[in-house]
Amino acid sequence: MTAARFAYFAASPALTGLVSFFYRLDTAGSAFDGGLCALLGQIQIGLGGTATYDFRSTPVIAPALSIIGPSDIAGRLTAPSQFRAIGCGLTPAGWSRLVPIRAALAANRLLPAEAIFGADAITLARQCTAAGDDQAVVAVLEVFLRARLAIAPPVDPRIAVIDAWVVGGDGWDVDRLARSLGLSRRSLERLTASTHGSTPKRLAAKYRSLQAAGQMAVGEVTDWRDAAIQGGFADQPHFIREFKRFVGMTPQAFRSNPDCFQAQLLRGSWEPSKRLGISIWA
Q1: HSE-up of residue 16 (Cα within 13 Å, Cβ side)
Q2: Angstrom distance (rounded) from CA 181 to CA 162
Q3: Chain center to CA of 122
Q4: Which tens digits make up the pLDDT trace of 77-97?
Q5: Sign (positive/negative) of CA torsion 154, 158, 162, 165?
Q6: What is the C-alpha separation between 35 and 18, in angstroms, rounded?
Q7: Strand order in the sheet with 41-48
Q8: What would the DSSP string read from start to end of 140-159?
Q9: In 3D, which of 159, 192, 160, 194 has the Cα closest to residue 174?
Q10: With bands split at pLDDT 50, 70 and 90, how would you rate the model's confidence at 1?
Q11: Using an 8 Å Cβ cutoff, are 53 and 279 in contact?
Q12: 2-57, pLDDT tens digit by residue?
């Protein structure tokens, strides 16, 4: 069986704009093997069972406390029955303040949190294991993040400009974005690799593909060809290619399988008729 459950919890106001959500993932008593759409960077705490993530056809067993880098390709999750994890999604601003490595170094990868946070990660894992229920674990993780925030560098104001461009479009003209920031195109690409884990062009394609998938997942768009038009894709083959890259299946297959895990992930935080910000990457 491939059953899995995914639930979201809101972050406190202190983490607004940095943590898009907290989440619980469990396998509902059955082994799980399913696709993942491209994701935000995350911190994930394993509380039962051992999951395997695969973003590059090289499965990696998740450490008990993992840093999951932002992904710009679809992936796969395999987990045994009784698997349970609590985690949080980090916006680019959140990553830049809370995780002390460039996003590109973790993109499409899993890293042991100890390698990033040192002994604090060991303490966090121990406290989460002892916390008990989901809300208690989320509270422990939030305390950890707020403590890191107290010593974190200020957010780079250029991140908000990049996020707005990714979400708002303006023709998705990379050179125009670079000029607005006083950068060359190459310097902009180095910046977004550091803050977002990918190039501006790739980020825009990712957002537009996930936005289209979200619209289909909640029934705002019933024909995937309409989603392609609304997303500003050049033609249907281009849309199909990009959608498959970031969602992990063709638009037609996605529309025909409304209970797939990717659809569950997107529906979980979606509000019909509302264009979400950068956190749609969840």
Answers
A1: 3
A2: 9
A3: 24
A4: 999 998 999 999 999 999 999
A5: positive
A6: 26
A7: 5-9, 19-26, 84-90, 41-48, 65-68, 110-112
A8: HHHHHHHHHHHTSPPPPTHH
A9: 192
A10: very low
A11: no
A12: 578 888 888 999 999 999 989 999 997 789 999 999 999 999 999 999 999 999 87
- Phi–psi pair at 122, nearest 5 degrees: -65, -45
Count of other CB atoms within 10 angstroms of residue 154: 7
Give mean pLDDT, residues 114-138. Answer: 93
Going by C-alpha positions, the residue among 188, 193, 229 that lies closest to residue 211 is 229
Cα separation, 121 vs 117, whole angstroms: 5
Q: Residue 123: CB partners within 8 Å, gap ≥ 6?
A: none
Side-chain-side CA neighbours of 279 within 13 Å: the count stands at: 21
Q: Which two tokens stand for residue 213?
A: 């998938």
Name the residue among 27, 6, 8 with its Cα closest to residue 79. 27
Burial class (CB in 10 A: 0-12, 13-18, 19+), 237: exposed
The CA distance from 35 to 246, in Å, is: 11
* Edge-to-edge strand list for the sheet holding 60-61: 32-36, 75-79, 52-54, 60-61
pLDDT of residue 187: 98
Secondary element (H or E) of residue 64: none
- Residue 32's nearest CA partner among 10, 54, 56, 64 is 54
- Of the chain, the percentage scoring pLDDT greater than 90 comes to 73
**How far apart are the C-alpha atoms of 108 and 103, rounded to whole Å?**
10
Distance CA 148, CA 172 (A): 34
Instruction: Write down how long the chain is.
Output: 282
The encoded tokens of residue 22 equal: 């907290």
Our CA dihedral for 111, 116, 119, 121, rounded to 10 degrees, sits at: -60
